[in-house]
Amino acid sequence: MWGPCFVLIAVDIKHSMGDTHAFENPAVLSLSVLFYRYHNTLALEAMKWRRNLSSDVVFEKARRWVIGTMQKIVVYDWLPKLVGRSLPPYTGYKRWVKSDITDVFDAGAINYIMTLIPPAITLIDKHCEPRRPNGYPAYRLCNTFWKSMEILNTYLDQEAGMIEVLRGLSAQLAERDDTFVVEDYRSKFYGPHYNPDHDAVLLTIMKGRDYGLPDYNTVRQTLGLKVKTSFEDVNPWLTRENPQLVKAFKKLHGGDLSKVDMFVGGMMETTPSGPGELFTQTLIDQFTRIRDGDRFWFENEDNGLFSEEERKALMNITLSYVMQNITGKKMNDDLELQDDVFTVSQDGACGLKMFFNESDLEKCHKPKKYNFFKGSEIPYIIIWTCLGLLPFLCILAAYTLAKLKQFLHQRRVNAMKLEKEKRRILRRTLSCSVSVHDALEWQGSKEPRSVELHLTNKGFLEVFSTSGPHLRTIKICTLPTLSVKISSNKKRNVLAIIMPREYDLVVEFPSEPMRSDYESVLCTFAQSHDVGTTVEELKLPELYGSVTTKEKRNRMLEKFFKTVFSEAFQMDYDPSLDRGHSDMKRHNKDILEIELSKEEFAEAMAVKANSDFVEHFFSLIDSDRNGYISFREFLNAVVLFSKGTIQEKLQTMFYMYDIDGTGYMSQTQIAKMFRSLLELAQSNPNHEDVDLMIESLCHQSGMQTKEMYSFEDFCQLLSPQIDTLWDASFDWKGLTKVVRQPANGKNVKKTTASSSDPDLRRRVTTTSETPSTNGTAFNTSRLIRKFEAVRETYTPFKSRMKIVKHFIENYRHHIFILVIFFGICVGLFSERFYYYSVEQEHTGFRKLMSYGISITRGAAASMSFTFSFLLLTMCRNTITFLRSTPLNLFIPFDSHVSFHKIVAWTALFFSAIHIVGYSFNFYHLVTQPTRFLCIFNSLVFRHDHPFTFQQWLFGTMTGFTGVLLVLVLCILYVFATQTARRHIFNLFWLTHKLFIVLYVLTIIHGASVVVQKPMFYAYFVGPAIWYMLDKLISLSRKKTELCILKAQNLPSDVTMIEFKRPPRFEYKSGQWVRIACLAQGKDEYHPFTLTSAPHEDTLKLHIRALGPWTWNLRHIFDDENMKNTKAYPKLYLDGPYGAGQQDWYQYDVSVLVGAGIGVTPYASILKDFVHMASINMRYKVKCQKLYFIWITGSQRHFEWLIDILREVEEVDPHGMVSIDIFITQFFQNFDLRTSLLYIFEEHFQKMNGGKSVFTGLKATTHFGRPQMTTIMNAVHRAHPQVRKVGVFSCGPPGVTKGVERACVETSKATKALFEHHFENF
């Protein structure tokens, strides 16, 4: 047997116990250190007697002896005193006995000792004096939790503190065996740092429930004990001694014993003699099985661990022996420690028996909660605020870059302005003006504009814009007196010239001396032309208030026109209702005093003031020849052309050009009249053509021999078209504000259908090629109508349902695809949400982060799908190929760009949910103890070093890549907006290449496997491979440099480029390509529609200058720049790609509507159709009738298209293509000038084989805007058997929206479906 050893080994107790509970309180720590040193003592003793033993053998021997000692003390010394009886004698190891711990023991019986634990821990020094901490007789137990080291070091050192604690334990009495537990183990029991206020009793009850233990009686019955039938029967002694407690116990459980927990019922059995039969039975059974079922029990002779002598020695060891021999001789010498330290006796330590009441002790301190979020508050707020501001910072960056680009552009513009300024100065130097001054014209609420004031030798003041255009003329020489007003305050630099019958001229000079100089020059100039001058000084506000600006003049003219038109058409107009005109007398006086200048008169007629027509018409109306038209003169003209007879109207036109007033006109004067009208229509035919037309009219009327024509002869010339002129009038600007066309059509011509005529069939009783005089009608002369459409009668509900039905019918494919797409997104989100909310409940993620983990994982799944699917929407070559397959019947490939945007916004939506979700998830993670984070298998946490928010966000690969992804997303989406693309397209192009970085970061983001295995690759691999293959096809084309064969800048800011067609380049009419110009960067591609036909050897593009890139391209091909360049720049080509316009051949009837530059795709389609017709291959396409509607401000803007249309007419003898041209920059159908132009058009076509005087085509030319609903109805009546008509429009949004409305209305009113496909430019 090993003898005692008194050597103390210095150890770091804080980290060497191996059990965190050793530091719970000083008593537990002291006992732990006691047996720790006992082990070391035994090891040294073994090494002393046998020096040749290895360290492992020494360790095992000491370990066996410590275990045997503890087994003997617990089972044979402590347990009998606890339960009041000993275990049955040991009969040897029984292999069939299960020695595992039962749930009843773990969650119930062993916790019975809580009733014995006192509320205090006392320390007794070597002089047998109890320590009095803070003046109290002992340490309060609740105040010692996890402060063991601090208390042991309070007095002397750790060793002395441990000895004092053990001495105090041997002299301190335990609590009584009863049903009470001290407050220290109830409401003041320790808990985790984040919630230290726990209740040990409550935790024990909850532990039994977590184990799924049955109720109290069921446990008793399972252990073979008698079932209790009443609450009084649970503890008869307690019922007698404390009946109130039993009643409260019964009331708490509602009188139902089946609701009593096992632990509560067992504690209620307690009597002064110890635990009741339930806990006694459980403790005896558990320790008996531990002893009998343990093969390594120290009494087992068969295991060979101990000899007989050693077993006897172990049976003689007590806790008192260990304490006395391990803590040192000094304690044993000074004090007599009782042999049985579990029982306090008179011969114990210092002869003391100490018992403490809670009232005598210090109150429990309020526990300090450990804030795991401490240190993360400020970073959390700052970081999430920065992430929230990141999109706005990107917007600010985009705005700054756009402004920088605008600044650089403005600098170039200023350089050009400087050059223009030099030319302007040169022009002023060479001009015949007497003097020229620069100033700013004040325009009231509008911005001032820079002007030049020219005083000419004719006595005129000419006002020019500094950019060159002429603005107005003031005839100073004709004024009786020149009235001038000048400002007398502020800068004294404003001068106003008062015009009696026009708006005043108010100019501002840079300084007072310059104004004074101009004032002197102006007065001298007026006096030189015998015009008196008056100069009046006013304060600046008074001056501004007294002058008549152009804006104020226009308001006066508006009321002037309203009064005139209401008088002429007998409309109810009350000027007193207008604001600011409550004084009727003054108002009527102002109206009557207004006189129109020639410029204002021309503006009222919507023509230029210097036109020959205006000169003659103005001279005719200005009866007093004062250069102005009075109210009465203008009213007479309006009444004449509104209600006068045809003879009166023609007589007016006759006298307009009978300049000499002889009552006769020559053929030259008649030709001049028609030429002036053609000038208004922006058409410039040869003089020979006009003369030939006049000769034709004379020959038709039998007056070819006459040289001079009277008014009667003039009427005879126009007699065949007298019906056309019957209701003709003038189209005055402002007329529609007062006079509206009557609904019954009284003012509409009877023989010519107008735009308001609902039944156009009356115009097609013959198949003549007579042009329509309707400015807004369709070329219905070519539509042979054999059937009448029957219009159904709808209720309002049916009408709305018809609109919905049409929308669904027209967009059924789009709706179907969107339903599938959003269904997949919602399905993926829901599946992940359910998985982490229900199926993964056991992992602890939801408990740790609530439903935030479910939301973020669901959003992550949808993000993975949407971001991967984005690649497929940009596989342009694949989409172009699929458009030619049957899949195009079910999938709207034309809308792939719009669908790309929808997918992108959906991805952004789920990204926002993911980001916001993790803002809550990170908060939950940071506020949890480190031991709860063990569910993250891929991360390593230190128990003594909580993970902060900064570490989660920047210390993990997932968090750091997430921050980078947010940055990339902000840049991508901000620079991809329409505004950014419009102003900084090149940056959009560059930033959009960050999608590669986006996908790389996304892969790395999930590679850390923090929550789950990465799933992004499952969505990404397929689309990525397909996109790369599609991109390789594009790259194979982009590598080839293409030579430009021809380039030309056309009117209306259009540039034509013709370049070499690459080998094996196949495309369809209506498709588009992407080009990059080497002079502007080979990586910046822009889309344009091909205007060449598939059968041509070269490719053509017509590009309208709208943005910086297209303007720079136009500048490159400017004639002046090309003089210094030997060759055109190279081009890079990518395409072709499919567009909705290419499906024109899939309908029996197709209607093409092009406006502005939007006619470019139809140029290719028309040439393709013509080519197939010329080689008799039209059978290859389904389309058998093509209607082309061209809407343009002037036919001269797109003369290149006229050549294509002329070629179409030459090879289309059967009229398979119907062409109508609408010129919008002219008058409407009821205007007299328009009627005369139609007369000229008819005769010109008869003389030139049906060609138009305006376009040189056989196609009908209309003036005004088309009525698309009327056109669609006409198409349906021409083809009543067709149930589906393809309508294709391309141009500004206003045009395509109008076509869409017409398709909807026509589809409602007819049984045909008009499917609309459109593109905007």
The percent range for strand residues is 5-15%
Strand order of the largest sheet: 6-5-4-3-9-8-7-10
The largest β sheet comes out as: 8 strands, mixed
Molecular shape? elongated
- Helix and strand composition category: alpha+beta
Enumerate how many helices there are, as a single number.
47
Low-confidence stretches: 1-15, 329-335, 571-584, 723-792, 1226-1233
Give the averaged pLDDT, no decimals.
77
Q: How helix-rich are the residues, as a percent range?
A: 40-55%
Distance between the termini: 104 Å
Radius of gyration: 52 Å
Number of β-strand runs:
25
EC number: 1.6.3.1
Transmembrane segments: 378-402, 815-835, 855-875, 902-923, 952-975, 987-1008
GO molecular function: calcium ion binding; heme binding; NAD(P)H oxidase H2O2-forming activity; peroxidase activity; superoxide-generating NAD(P)H oxidase activity
Biased composition (Low complexity): 765-775
